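Lecture 7 notes: from sequence to structure.

We start with a single chain of 173 residues. Read the sequence below before looking at the structure.
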Amino acid sequence: MLNRERLHFRLAIGSGEPQEIAIGHGLVSQLVDDAGALVTTDQLREAGLTPEQARAIALENLACFADESQDLSIQVLGAPGDPLHFLLYSDHPLASACLLLPDLHEHAAEVLQEADLLACVPQRESLVVFPKRDAASRERMVAQLRAIEADAPHPLTFALFSLAASGATPFSE
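Now the structure, written as tokens:
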């Protein structure tokens, strides 16, 4: 039986599963259990949940996880005005899913002291949020991420997302 408290999101490259929701740049959110197994339509039906209800529960669980988990590393690197200044969620398979958090922009804007923000999810175990600045600074940041995350076991994308209070959307120059 599906345990509602163990329902989570995972970001992945789209594979056509029925429960996937497109995020942009080829990425989707998937409903998974604590073991990382995809949640099926049959499991939702057996649990008496619609896909929308399951996604709402997963989002609530993700917010609790981000607020309370000792396993998720959340740190600010650099300082305002530094060439590399960013917020990093890492060290857990759900880190990239934090892109879906409803308060991500608010939290990131506060700790980075910037309102115009971008995000990148280079791999499943990391989410990087940084000031938008100019094209050259964005290129520097992505180059650094490519070098650091080159051998990540679960790569996602180096494409960027704009962050706003309403959520994350694909960014393009």
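The chain has a mean pLDDT of 95. Keep this in mind for problem set 3.
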